[in-house]
Amino acid sequence: MGKLMGNILFRRVGITTLVIAGMMLAAGAGAYAATKMTLIVNGKKSTVEPISIKGVTYVPLRSAAEMLGAEVNYNGATKSVMIASKPDSSPLGNEGNGVVGSVNGVPITKNQLYAAMAAVGGSQMLDNLIQEELVKQEAKKKGIVISDKDVDAEMAQIKKQFSSDSEFHAALQQSNMTLEDLKKQIPMQLRIRKLVELRAKVSDEEVKQYFEANRAMFDQPEEVKASHILVSTKAQADEIMMQLKGGADFAKLAKEQSTDTGSKGTGGDLGFFGRGVMVSEFEEAAFSLKVGELGGPIETEFGFHIIKVTGYKEAKAATLEGKKAEIREQLIRQKIAELSPQLLEELKSKAQITNTLNGR
User: Which SUPFAM superfamilies does UniProt cross-reference here (predicted)?
Assistant: First the structure.
């Protein structure tokens, strides 16, 4: 192949543009005795060596182009060299060249970020997205629509499992989630639930058996609702008791003077609690008071307490009729949890799924 003189246009190859200035390119390897040089393309050393003759450097065109991912062909009929770039393999296309960071002027591109994220958790994330799309498509076929009202109702159901808002938000924190994160997950869970519900039938007999086996769990124990003000000395507690007997507002004093950071913000309110929950001295005093009565100072390992009882529930045996709906809902949720993986596997087996990260 003869020498190629003059201007040669190099197209974009992958994400790199080959720029060669002030030199002539030889289509062949060159067979002249001359100064040996090293060809480096994109930081990689080529096994083919350029040569310099009389101040002109000859670079093997095919070697340089192919190292950049291009195809080089010689057309004898038209006496032309054709260079064609291979399709861009980046899933981000030209956007992948965008710079998202840099270190000492060296750029870090979106392609690099994508590759790193795909290597670390990409496979699991893609599986989750595939699963979500499968469920969406199946729900659409079945005419299942999830409304904002459905999401709000499910959120309320989840909150009911916690004794207070603070306990609910603490659980979210422990799961490293926000309220919005949870809300975004609910539609997916509701679609799965509605798809599985047809299989998750619960009979009256199953409800009855569960009630009989767990009767004690459904019985209402004796409970008292109380508020308290906790201080470190008896003198402080006596002073607060005098103010309360003189008509001072209990909640206001609790917010101002109680050292119990867990309850002072709500005016000392501890909610309802049964026996065996509080330390014995506190429990004995709380259960001995009538609703509206003050008690104390009561000394415990935590300090001195002023107690005010604000509510009372008598012990009450549960009935099957009273707990039937609650038990049925609980059993349905259990069955949904058991049957959901089976449903998802069935949907996967019937679908045409492409997963290039896992080579499928």
Answer: Copper amine oxidase, domain N, FKBP-like, Triger factor/SurA peptide-binding domain-like
